[in-house]
Design brief:
This protein is mainly beta and 333 residues long. It contains three helices and 26 strands. Among the domains are: 1-158, no CATH class; 267-333, Thrombin, subunit H. It is globular and about 50 Å long.
Amino acid sequence: YAATNEGIAKSIDGGNQWTQLDTNLPLPPNKSLGELKLSNMTVVGNALYLRTNQGGSTNCLLHLHPNTGTLRHIEGMPIYVDLSHGKWLESTIRSTATVGLSKANQPDLFRYQLGIQEAVVRTTGEFAVSKGTFYIEYERKLYRWTPGDHEWYDTGVRDAPVFGDFYATDGFQFAVSGKVIYLGKSDGSLFQSLDGGDTWKDVTVDFPFQLNRSESQDQLLKKLPHFRNIRFVDNRVYVSTKDGVAMSSDGENWHTLTDSKYASIAMRQLAVDGTTLYGVSQTGVYRLDNKTGIWEQITSEVLGRVTSIVVAGNFLYIGTERHGLLSLPLRTL
């Protein structure tokens, strides 16, 4: 799957041919699917989940089931993360008469349009799905929802500014595996939860790549954002920062990943294929040797600004800002 200016495209032959999906999502007047700025695409099982950058409430988490090709809001998910924001928003939209739709489509469209309108004043960041439970960042807080719950649960963790009220990021980086969560805040602190966000532990003191906040603001600005990616491979977590990547299985004992010359490599993006980790840096594309724990360079081509990478069908697909979508065959490497 790929998000394009026209909406969602699908390829079943490794990216050689693409077809645009008719997702049947009811849209407000004069709105196209491409205008939603679809992103954060996540495949769980045989289903695709994604969000829109224009949405500031949970109804901007969408679900595409491959058997129907229909894009819909997630069934049973509460419309709002924060109920007080929802009450204000509904009163605002009704008072401005922005909902002028047929009765048949109005419920879905109303929920969708609330998300678009709320983007003006609210911030929605990353989201994750693990074992049927959803996690989303909203207003720099992490919330959790499991089907059957009547509202989103505030896990109590909040983002922290680097200095003053300056964050340097749209939100924190986090990853979930089962009930284990690792979360990197904007100020460089790293937190761990082993119970799905009920309790949290600050594990920054043991993490090898720490942000030196005693430096001047000018020096700090050159090192932001500190956290770039967090990925799980089995029971191990890999945390990528501006300075390099570290791995741990417990959050206390960390191993710094290096190349054969024992140099740390700052990865812009990470991707997981089974038990193998891939990374893209300014110096090329790397694969982590599971036996030695050393980064092996598989191509030295500099790709410019990389926006995303994913492994599928013996190919590494690399999304770039200026060169489009690139594919790198892995069989011969």
